Amino acid sequence: MRYGARAGQNGPGLAKECHVAIRVLLVDDQPLLRTGFRMILEAEQDLAVVGEAGDGLQALDQVRALQPDVVLMDIRMPRMDGVEATRQITGPGRDGPAKVLVLTTFDLDEYVVEALRAGASGFLLKDAPANELVQAIRVVAAGEAMLAPSITRRLLDKYAGHLPSGEEPVPNTLSTLTDREVEVLKLVARGLSNAEIAADLFVSETTVKTHVGHVLTKLGLRDRVQAAVYAYESGLVRPGAQ
């Protein structure tokens, strides 16, 4: 995240810019929604909307030009949808550190799964309360995943038909994990929070966080959302399994 901002970005709100930490790009094909999001975010002292885009192609241009910290990304848009835009923003050779928070109208939109696979750090419903939107941006900007583990599991289970059956061979990459790390990965995919995993394994939350960190590093994953997707896609966890 960068502190300070460019002159004239928010006009009269320039004094606020002096200590802005999180730069946000709004991407949605509905101007009215972008206006609503802008009003909510610009009321916060630590957030600044640095730009807007009406489709995925515009979003890529804006990300390169404005270097936002967080992109609020709609999924269904003309020319280029949010899934492909997310893949290009967060994929190899990306131009900046922008993280993507997907916006969706439906809590079980099938495209959300694809957006998470593409590299999104989480998703949020468009009708979520303003305070949830603000908090989600802060969480994602801090490098965390904005997606309750229980929702991750429900989402993946809903679209189990797009995932492996669980009969496929476990990928070799899992061999880099210790037995305890594999156990933790399974629990993450089942939808347990760090506190719940700690209680289940009779260890401290700090220990769980350490294990989760090792899992992400060894598997080259960004956050626990991608870890949950990986566990399903690899067949380590079967959709619907308890």
Blueprint of the fold:
Blueprint: H1 14-17, E1 22-27, H2 31-41, E2 47-53, H3 56-66, E3 70-74, H4 82-90, E4 99-104, H5 110-118, E5 123-125, H6 130-141, H7 149-158, H8 179-190, H9 194-201, H10 205-219, H11 224-233
Parallel strand pairs: 1-2, 1-3, 3-4, 4-5
Helix pairs in contact: 3-4, 4-5, 7-11, 8-10, 8-11, 9-10
Keywords: DNA-binding, Phosphoprotein, Transcription, Transcription regulation
Organism: Streptomyces filipinensis
Domain Response regulatory: 23-141
What does this structure look like?
- The chain is an alpha/beta fold and 242 residues long.
- Helices cover 46% and strands 11% of the residues.
- It is built from eleven helices and five strands.
- The protein has a five-stranded parallel β-sheet, sandwiched between helices.
- Helix 5 (110-118) links the parallel strand 4 and strand 5.
- Helix 3 packs parallel to helix 4 (82-90) and helix 7 (149-158) packs parallel to helix 11.
- The N and C termini lie far apart (39 Å).
- The model is unreliable at 2-18 (pLDDT under 50).
- Keywords: DNA-binding, Phosphoprotein, Transcription, Transcription regulation.
- One of its GO terms (molecular function) is DNA binding.
